[in-house]
Amino acid sequence: MSLSEKKRKNEGEVYSIFKKRKPDGSREDSNPPLDDESAKAKLLAFKSLLDFSLVDTEAEISSRFDRISKDLLHEFRLVVRRENAPDMELEILEAEFYLQIAEIHEDPFTHGSEEQRVSGRWYFHRAPQYSHDSTRSSTSLTSYRTGSRKGMDLTFGGPPQLPSSGASTVAPKASDRLLRGGILLRSVRQVKSGKVTSGPSLLVDLVLSASSASGIEELVEKKWLNNTTAFPAEVDAKQTISLSLKPISTASKTLPTVYRSPRIGLDLSHPGTTSVTALPLHPRIQFLPRKYRFFTHPELLVANGRPQTFLGVLQTLAVVLPAGLKTPSLGSNIARITKTKDATAAKYLADYVAGRDGGPSLVDQFIGTKGKGASSSPATYLRMLGALSNID
């Protein structure tokens, strides 16, 4: 085979990162392997789904979010291809969506990095910069976030521009249209061991450790050769280490429920956020309560975001129970599903209901400096979300 033939694989081939490894008895994988044609079809369909270039309504955005989240949580895994070690397969348990589309869906909590202009890439969070514009976020063009503030997105929204041979995919050419997005991966479970890693920074640490990289710069520039693609067909043959999406078969198993909740760590403390009485509503008030966090297995997500997980399960149960929020057993049912104490679930429910009873005017108590740190206090956060639930 010539060098050019080795350089890039076709999507229909059996990628080396997907080759079956000899079982070692640690944890049985219940998903049968997909045939090559089915794997190719899933990858191509998902790549198309990430491209929002022709999307122009909120209804279509919501539909896409649902489809993409179910694909990520049910139909795909992450595969870390390692050097001199078996591949590490990861089941995605939790992800958050952030998207900016000019005049249609201008989410102020979206990073809006240049690297988010092209879909289907891994984007490691850049250091934040203060933005005087309360409707926009701002990030560094050079330095990555470090310490406990790291994060990794699967980019989406923009077109899936493919790199030319040997070209970097880290800094795609800018486009005039505002169309940028990222799906923040928050929690994963190792397929072989069952170990759960929860939290964006710890997830990045897991990828770095599995890839034998001391930091993000080394991973991207030296291990990945500046090729940040999430699709196996675009992995350079020279790469011995990569991170790719792997489609799996789900025909023979019962799929876990996908819950939705507001995203973790967001508040209304930016000084530019206006009162709830000012119309149109400030984008931060509009987007903070939106259910753009998707997750399965709430009983495993105990390290971060318990109030958000509570809300996701609450809203799922409240829809199917005839008495809704007034169902006597609601708190205990949530406690059972989330594996929390009955007293904790009851307190969370009381705080949320208190916020709802306070009405929309209560929201102003959480805006500006008064709202600083609201996301880190379960009681304050749940009252805030209860109040926001009154706003259409």
Topology, please?
Elements: H1 3-7, H2 36-50, H3 58-75, E1 76-81, E2 88-101, E3 105-106, E4 122-124, E5 126-129, E6 138-144, E7 152-155, E8 179-190, E9 196-198, H4 200-210, H5 216-223, E10 242-247, E11 259-261, H6 283-287, E12 293-295, H7 306-320, H8 330-338, H9 342-358, H10 378-388
Antiparallel strand pairs: 1-2, 1-10, 2-3, 2-8, 2-12, 4-7, 5-6, 7-8, 8-9, 11-12
Helix pairs in contact: 7-8, 8-9, 9-10
Describe this structure in words.
The chain is of the alpha+beta class and 392 residues long. 29% of the residues lie in helices and 17% in strands. The chain has two domains: 218 residues, 3-methyladenine DNA Glycosylase, Chain A (Roll), CATH 3.10.300; 130 residues, no CATH class. It has ten helices and twelve strands. The strands form two sheets. Strands 1, 2, 3, 4, 7, 8, 9, 10, 11 and 12 form a ten-stranded antiparallel sheet that branches. Strand 8 and strand 9 form a beta hairpin. It is globular and about 60 Å long.
Number of helices: 10
Share of helical residues? 25-40%
Alpha-beta classification: alpha+beta
Mean pLDDT: 88
**How far apart are the termini?**
61 Å
Task: Characterize the biggest β-sheet.
Answer: 10 strands, antiparallel
Percent of residues in beta strands? Answer: 15-25%
> What is the rounded Rg?
21 Å
The dominant shape is globular
How do the SSEs run, as a string of H and E? HHHEEEEEEEEEHHEEHEHHHH
CATH architecture of the largest domain: Roll
